[in-house]
Amino acid sequence: MQLIVEKNNIRLDKYLSEATEITRSQINKMIDSAAVLVNDQKVKPSYLVKEGDVIVISDNWQQPIAIKPNEMPITIVYEDEDIMVVNKPSGVVVHPGAGNHDHTLVNGLMYYTQSLSDINGEERPGIVHRIDKDTSGLLLIAKSNQAHAILTEYFKNKEVHREYIALLDGVFPHNTATIDAPIGRDKKNRKKMCVTAENAKSAITHLQVIKRFAHHTLVSLVLDTGRTHQIRVHMQYIGYPVHNDPVYNNRQATPFGQFLHSHSMDFYHPITKEHLTFSCPLPTEFQEYLDQLEQEEK
Fold this sequence. Notes:
Blueprint: E1 2-4, E2 10-11, H1 12-19, H2 24-32, E3 36-38, E4 48-49, E5 54-57, E6 75-79, E7 83-88, H3 105-112, E8 136-142, H4 145-156, E9 161-169, E10 176-180, E11 183-185, E12 193-195, E13 204-212, E14 216-223, H5 230-237, E15 260-268, E16 275-279, H6 284-297
Parallel strand pairs: 8-15
Antiparallel strand pairs: 1-5, 2-4, 3-5, 6-7, 7-8, 9-14, 9-15, 10-13, 11-12, 13-14, 15-16
Helix pairs in contact: 1-2
């Protein structure tokens, strides 16, 4: 369903409840799950519509289902009564969504503990930020609502330093680089993102070379922004896609997914204010492939 707004300065949820037969509470859930987009962007229920805004309501949206705890192995790097830091394996979805209701990290966290923040609703307990299904590594979890609110501000103000390690296809010629290129939804494939000037958000990625191989480059990456698929899109954009990326690399990929790992993280504890620093090793498949490249070099 598509609507062209003909009024100004009305809350989005109120406008839709008056313009459709959908209840306001259901509209809020749809907005939160990105089943309602304004000008191709996810917005908040409090967004004030403007004349000419294009509102698209998904025809495939379904009422969120109750999330069931699933027993699964979780590698806990750190835990106290307010936060957790976990090492997410490649192949694990962070939270339930379309087509993924079971065996996500959230399902496992709910089995492990009943102490998770609920600020992000029933489908995303404890989730302050996310990484892609096939990206491995560190993820910060909020156990209390107080910690969650403070961590949200940390991320907003870029006070959580995160470093990723990726293996790129091709030999990158510079030792460092900054990619400043806006990212938006790909019009040809709505499941993909791309560098575009239309309905895009600022995206900045800092790159530093760790090691060059004959046909690959191992790099460290730090983000100034946290756009969907940012690293993968930016690496494709500069012509050095992440190795084994099933979406943004034209080469055939194995089930492991992209060689992209959330390697380290440091921040101040939201409650105690203690400075915390964490790191985790590369996944076995990632490390074994690097070892193979090292042997080939010799």
